[in-house]
Amino acid sequence: MMKTPSGTQIRQTLYFQLFFWTALFLFGTARMYGEYESGAFKELVIYNFCHWIFQIAGANFIYFVLIRRFFDRKRYVELLLYLVISLYLISVINRFFLVYIAEPLFTNEVKDSISDIFTDIPYLLTHYTFTIISGAFIFISIMFFIRYKDEKEQTIKLQKEKTELELQSLKSQLNPHFLFNTLNNIYSLSISHSDKTSQSISQLSDILDYILYKGQKKWVSVSDELAIIEDYIALESLRYHDERLKIQKYIRLNSPNTIPPLLYLTLVENAFKHGVGKSSETTEIKIDVETNSQHSVFTIENIFSDQKAANEKGIGLQNIQRQLQYHYQEHFTFSISQENNIFKVEISTPSYYD
Q1: CA distance 333 to 157
Q2: All domains of the chain, ordered by start, with CATH?
Q3: Which candidate, 106, 103, 108, 98, places its Cα nearest to that of 131?
Q4: What is the pLDDT of residues 135-163, one digit of tens each?
Q5: Which residue has the higher pLDDT, 112 or 332?
Q6: pTM of the predicted structure, to 2 decimals
Q7: d(C-alpha 71, C-alpha 242), whole Å
Q8: DSSP assignment string, 83-138
Q9: What is the Cα–Cα distance from 340 to 10, expressed in whole angstroms?
């Protein structure tokens, strides 16, 4: 099914045709200038004009009717058949127009018979068909180039829109996932009438503010992401005794780099969910962040005791992989490893990428 061209595309095609056919006519006229006497030159201009009209008609008929109807639908035999018939009929009409309408205006030469016009194939080919084909070939070649360029741009645009929709879908999965875990934390505190309930609500407010506003941006600074991770860790730490949870952080920010929002936070959440949340023993989480003028490297390790939980690849890690591909294409590293009950994830991204 052929797409209906937009108003902008129609205007662009009209402007192009106006420029192309005018330039072609002027080029043909200028090439003959000075080679003939004044009277003969005027006649040649008229002949050139008559051929030019049918070049325009023929080229547009071939491209917008034959190519769109047969070539685009891969009906090549029909295209060839109708192309031959069309060129013959256009050449006959062009010669008939010239002999019986145009020439009587400036010459008294004997007119060719209608029979000769239809049957003198070599003359038609030499003086009319090849002229139509030459103009049509240049026109159709340029139209195919413009069409390819427009279709490529449209494909890129649609792919970008599709990817952005997928990214929004990923975020819509992540936010309820994170919110569900956090609300469970607050609920646990409220059941025990803990004095820390109000503090946890304040921490949650800061995190939700980050998700709702900065989380919708394409890029955030690494320092902003780390600040909200501090809030998240503080909120999670309310649930555990100091003996149950040990957090080690090594932060070296040597450059104001940017990353997609929620990238590091998702990994921290994942470490809590599959590390501390799955174990009743003391659990240690190590966070290492370093930025420089070339890269941002984030590494997180957590101890796990449940092998089955370590092998799970939940929403968080899947979303991270897809977000990295969306934002950086292939310009990133994302590694996951587990050894001696230590689950480790490392992400390395360019310092700035857009």
Answers
A1: 26
A2: 7-156 (no CATH), 194-350 (3.30.565.10)
A3: 98
A4: 889 999 998 888 888 888 887 777 776 66
A5: 332
A6: 0.53
A7: 74
A8: HHHHHHHHHHHHHHHIIIIIGGGT--PPPPPHHHHHH-HHHHIIIIIHHHHHHHHH
A9: 66
